[in-house]
Amino acid sequence: MEAQRSPQLQLRHATTAANQQRFRSGSAAAQRSAMSGSVDLPVVDLASSDLRAAAASVRQACVEHGFFYVTNHGVDRALVEAVLAESKGFFDLPMEEKLKLHRTNHRGYTPPYAEKLDAASEFVGDLKESFYIGPIGDSDLQNDLNQWPSEERFPSWKETMKLYIATALDTGERILSLIALGLDLDAEFFHKIGALDCPSTFLRLLHYPGEVNESDSGNYGASAHSDYGAITLLVTDGTPGLQICREKDRDPQLWEDVHHIDGALIVNIGDLLERWTNCVFRSTLHRVVAVGKERYSVAFFLDPNSDTVVECLESCCSEADPPRFPPIKSGDYITGRINSTYK
Ligand SMILES: O=C(O)CCC(=O)C(=O)O
């Protein structure tokens, strides 16, 4: 597949220039993150008839990068465009309207600065605004904790999001099967241990501002973080800004731009898979830098059922390399991480 590079090379250069400016401006954190480049992530074809080969590619991607692209993933381009358009429609509302759906139970609207993904960031919070949709309950049974924009104003919003969530879940489950095969486990491993029995799925719609105030010079759209759960499926509107840091302890850190590939989804590994695999797979640090242009993206977090106990897989430890983390319930880990991210 021909990798269509994002056209905004100039923006990438602006990003690099912004990094250099931060380096010159001198804070220790800025200096640690001053270097940047770009990365060619592996591309995995989900329609490949050679499952073993696809699983081996996924394994290698998870070991080396913690990030990869998938193609032929079954999520229609028209559906992605509809989600991005509905998302833009919501974020275009006046702030007072958006705040009527302010986040409760980790569902609903989060304004700019309310979330700080990197606790060490010197700014009050990240620049992005977002909207969370949790597992879809049944509104008739009143067990749907989600908040939805008014159907009068957004007649197809809810159905579009529900369809996207169902489709992304299906794709995510196929990726988890390849991950299981790549770990020499049964392809149905995650199903069999109950992790995908009412999984904890969260869809996060994201909007990053274009112009930012002088006081936000050097602030991030989304500051450095790893994802908390199993895997994340990401689509963007093609605007650059996403960067990964493969070696978080390197000084200075090397941040690499992740290119947009038209039609591909970006997949990354979260902390729980890193724990399951005893750090054989990487939950890679990533962030979104401000590029002077508005940006929309959609992250689908596919995390295990919250009662799933995540403990080192036998194939990932030995006497010489004992488990690095104690067993933990998925829900406890994720709740702890979420609570430390919000003011
Ligand atoms: O918007 C992006 O490209 C990345 C979003 C992200 O890292 C997140 O929501 O955790």
Automatic annotation (TrEMBL):
InterPro entries cross-referenced by the UniProt entry: DIOX_N, IPNS-like_FE2OG_OXY, IPNS-like_sf, Oxoglu/Fe-dep_dioxygenase_dom
PROSITE patterns xrefs: FE2OG_OXY
Pfam families: 2OG-FeII_Oxy, DIOX_N
Record-annotated Fe2OG dioxygenase domain positions: 199-304
One GO MF term: dioxygenase activity
Keywords assigned by UniProt, alphabetized: Iron, Metal-binding, Oxidoreductase
Highest taxon in the source lineage: Eukaryota
Compositionally biased tracts (Polar residues): 16-29
Chain residue ranges for the region called Disordered: 1-29
Homology family: Belongs to the iron/ascorbate-dependent oxidoreductase family.
Name of the protein described by the UniProt record: Fe2OG dioxygenase domain-containing protein
